[in-house]
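Q: Predict the assembly, please.
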Amino acid sequence: MSDRILAAVMAAPRQPIEIREYARPDLPQGAALLRTGRSEVCGTDVHLWHGRLSGVPYPIIPGHVSAGVLQAIRGPLRGIHGTPLREGDRAVFFDVHRTCGRCRPCAVHRTPTRCVERRVYGITDPADEGLFGGWSQAIYLEPGVHIARLPDRVTFDQYIGGGCGLLTAVHILERAALRAGDTLLVQGTGAVGLSTIALARVSGAATIFAIGAPATRLDLARRLGADRVFDLNATSVDERLEQVQELTGGEGVDVVVEAAGSARAFEEGPYLARDGGRYVVAGHYTDAGASSINVHTAINRKHLDVRGCWGSEPAHFVRALAMLEQLGPAVPLASIGERTYRLDQLDQALADAESMRVTKAIVDPWASA
Amino acid sequence: MSDRILAAVMAAPRQPIEIREYARPDLPQGAALLRTGRSEVCGTDVHLWHGRLSGVPYPIIPGHVSAGVLQAIRGPLRGIHGTPLREGDRAVFFDVHRTCGRCRPCAVHRTPTRCVERRVYGITDPADEGLFGGWSQAIYLEPGVHIARLPDRVTFDQYIGGGCGLLTAVHILERAALRAGDTLLVQGTGAVGLSTIALARVSGAATIFAIGAPATRLDLARRLGADRVFDLNATSVDERLEQVQELTGGEGVDVVVEAAGSARAFEEGPYLARDGGRYVVAGHYTDAGASSINVHTAINRKHLDVRGCWGSEPAHFVRALAMLEQLGPAVPLASIGERTYRLDQLDQALADAESMRVTKAIVDPWASA
Amino acid sequence: MSDRILAAVMAAPRQPIEIREYARPDLPQGAALLRTGRSEVCGTDVHLWHGRLSGVPYPIIPGHVSAGVLQAIRGPLRGIHGTPLREGDRAVFFDVHRTCGRCRPCAVHRTPTRCVERRVYGITDPADEGLFGGWSQAIYLEPGVHIARLPDRVTFDQYIGGGCGLLTAVHILERAALRAGDTLLVQGTGAVGLSTIALARVSGAATIFAIGAPATRLDLARRLGADRVFDLNATSVDERLEQVQELTGGEGVDVVVEAAGSARAFEEGPYLARDGGRYVVAGHYTDAGASSINVHTAINRKHLDVRGCWGSEPAHFVRALAMLEQLGPAVPLASIGERTYRLDQLDQALADAESMRVTKAIVDPWASA
Amino acid sequence: MSDRILAAVMAAPRQPIEIREYARPDLPQGAALLRTGRSEVCGTDVHLWHGRLSGVPYPIIPGHVSAGVLQAIRGPLRGIHGTPLREGDRAVFFDVHRTCGRCRPCAVHRTPTRCVERRVYGITDPADEGLFGGWSQAIYLEPGVHIARLPDRVTFDQYIGGGCGLLTAVHILERAALRAGDTLLVQGTGAVGLSTIALARVSGAATIFAIGAPATRLDLARRLGADRVFDLNATSVDERLEQVQELTGGEGVDVVVEAAGSARAFEEGPYLARDGGRYVVAGHYTDAGASSINVHTAINRKHLDVRGCWGSEPAHFVRALAMLEQLGPAVPLASIGERTYRLDQLDQALADAESMRVTKAIVDPWASA
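A: Predicted assembly structure:
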């Protein structure tokens, strides 16, 4: 790697992505530099580009989940599994690089995803502070970042195919308390919804339903493990309810996962769950407006559990890797990544993601035209 | 007891309550007859009178929770604690007198309150089938009803002061996973809300907040254990939020309980809970219309648990008795019951309950004018 | 089916099995007669034959889990899924045919496997009361038994290969709170241990370890999904601990399952789990003598959860069927059943099971010599 | 406070305690100096003195839980509740002053009490590194220590009366999932057992049983809330079992807590719990030798949960304070501390604690002869 590193910078919402050149950073003790193999354009990046997240210190280098090769390590460095890391290792890292461990969410409530000082690669660090995003040929891994070797049998494309959606999906299934033999319905067929389907499939779920669009994503949903898919645009709320009821002995499913991010999804979801079931809400990462809900029929009489699910924790990162290592090709996440973009194509990548022309846009910062 | 038993019958919604005379029933093996000491007019009875519950086989004898003395027992009879019951015992019983044990809610999902064949005293049994309600001088306890001796130190008025609200409150605190040291806010100061406050107080809750009206009920809330009360009509949503935040270090409470049954309550409740907190929804026993909710701010980003809570189970009945027996006068539930009515005064009792002139109307079927 | 039904009767412990002839029973409303396709000889049957269970009303017809065809049904009959059953349906049933629903274990503690009036096919009913066991050409399904159609893609041999071990395994994984990505170690490679391995495999477990004997069962363990097996007789406790530690980053596994029924297993198991892990104890169905344990190192300092697991509930029966239906041939349980015996060969079957010459002896009551 | 600070140092096991003089430490940014009001001699200190904990870097300043006044603060400092701390505040702190947040116990398993780099005041820091223990006139609170203002209504003696046992008791009740209305039995009437009784009492427990000795501690147990106490030396295992069964309808209690630290206690405990109950093991902080247990009758058939409980977390510290603040004098913990010792009396204090002449020895480092 030369001493000049190219990175794609989002200077402000709705502005064209710029390519900037960075010097190779000096590494303090315990830090590392990762040569980026693959990063991604996820839904959050589209939200960032729309300026819909508050407190973002533009300009930034987006890209919060990435995979690559450890190019340089300063001092002995251990991964999250406790074993030493070495230069040349294929590696991934947990994108939340700081939580304080001392605020009440961290230390008392055990909800570190609500830490008041949380820092996330690709979102919370200004571009002039360094290589804190994956839309770059190299990523600065500061001391304390949770790093793990990528298991041999897992490709960069498989890992990034799930990407941040993969970790969210692990968290969702934890919140859902999904057990083998449970029926599941997923609202939304973006990266989060598809990753949830893929992980639920290898977790022994019984029938898996999915509601989404467009047709290409529904095909993907089927390939990843959905038994029955509903085209959001070609079926009505009543039709979906009727069919889910019919296929579940009149009950509804054990677990519904909201990964759609629409106000309408939340109005429909509770009725698709059985009485006493669980409804995990994970798609409302930004404000999608108001939902109208009848609390008597949707929640109270159904004895329903509705569980918000925000961010992810190191435990989800480790579990995602354990599942990929064990299950390997049985989790065909690579197919979620439909097209790979160069650094100078990321305006196009954002546009394609925004318009849902691609399910997941992959970033290869070293690809040349 | 003479052979003629008087009972108050609700012939149809909005009709005057009638007094009917019943013959003393023959008891099959395992049945008992309870001389009613106290019964109640609860919120459900007002709903019944308004015709807002579906499938009710009018005419009925209302009154689902009652206390009395075992007048007659046929054959050996054991209570839910396994010990023999005897004529003359002061006794109470669990109002759900049949669940099938075989449907999926009963046998598979362990949610018997959603049993498809559930039968409840005072609600689901027609008056011509017998004395299946507490607005009567005697109640027929069919074989299989869960009966318990009322602990010596618990008065009829204390037990009925909580009444069905007491059992619901036990279920609410179970769903809330309330632990000593948690902060709590209760929306609603009817019998359910007040019982929840009282039980939370003796369960070691830290600060308890209550929102309700009118002033008499707020006084009761304070007496039962609330540290801080908000008059629903004299404070705004914003004022309440601000004050709860201020008194909880800017976080909100650990547990919010909805026991108000209003669509507005559900719109306010999530914001009063801390991130990662729990919100138990128990007041929407009937349809109170649509609530408008922003899923991003109210549930997803807050990582909130929203838990519907429906009906109660024998375990809640037993736990309520255990608490009353141990804690006795420390749970001043009797004060919830403000006025006692004769059988011929139940139109007045319904009107008083409907208008919130009384918090809980108590029924004494043997009182004479 | 003729009017004469042959059944194998265990008259007393250690006595030769007798063949008796029964008349076809009259069916009351809601009852059914199942033509037995397959039953089994499980570890409990060996215990019964050894006289090691208390309160068994010998003579009995053993065989608690079975599969067959509904030969006759009296009156409309619904299965546990709520749909009508019909004569000719391939069917299975939950072996616990009575729990009282009224005792404290049933009604208060929600632990129906500890019901004081529990009745189980093949164990608790005397042979002179009727066809209450699977070692018979037909089984009397009394009103109230939980019956389910066997999914089309599941063969009798697959269902019985797991047999009662399959339901126990579902319960074990529930108690273990096993989640996809967890590592697992199973002590014991009998029907329970093997079923646990098979279900854990399709539930997304990460590395699965097994300790057992003899070699044939270890081969089975591998085929059913174990990644690493230890021959109980060819490895020492220290060797096993060392290797498990080495393969788990020095931690031990997330979940250990005791399905061995030996006092030594319990002495070893806690140390194979990681700190804060879970240890489910399910193999001690009878008294195997005293275990010696250092509570400081084995439980307290490890912050370990040790969870006894007794019997199974209808929910486990339904979940087992859901998993088999969804996963079908991916759960190769049929291979556990190594040899099929006729009714007149059951002395041999007991001897083979006792000596571990076969892992699971299958019973085909209609097979002829 | 002068510039010379006296501290009591344990130079090695079984050696007399020495008084050393320290200079007032320089405070880095974020650190504080606490003028010690009260510290304690707890069971761990006796173990330290016996040399029974491994890896202790003698000489050390013992005393892990203490209360005092913030004498000096360098830079702005916030407490665990998020509010600023000021010199002169009455304060307490969480004794675990470092966990790494990065090892698998911390970051993945959410079991920080098993952190591999855990540091605890009074135990893990050598005396030559500074004032890291409470047997000192002042304690150095390094940056990052969780500090809290002591609620106004809580005295030093009340807080230290519970001391480290108070935090352990909060953890025990969390592991026990104790709910109001549960019955409880506590084995052991030292500081941990007594604190558990006191907290369970104000948490709404139903009947509380205690087993312990000597008579003075049993009196304390009664005063703190036990309904029924058994003198360990005056009753037999069988007598205790019989009486507990009799007083719980033949079932045993919902929750048993082992806070005795004896091998015999673990042999008795499981049988005192009801089937499906919970048994929390917290007293085996050091090796008390082997227990002999019949797994069939004690764990498996009872469907029992046995839960090891190690150390405590910031959440338990905060919850303990919340309970003391709310419940105040209703938790008479001060009575556990029977005698207060000067720094030059700590050999006597250790001897008194060892011989059980005092239940809890309190340390007042500023008391003069």
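The longest strand of chain A covers residues 32-41. The mean pLDDT of chain A is 95.
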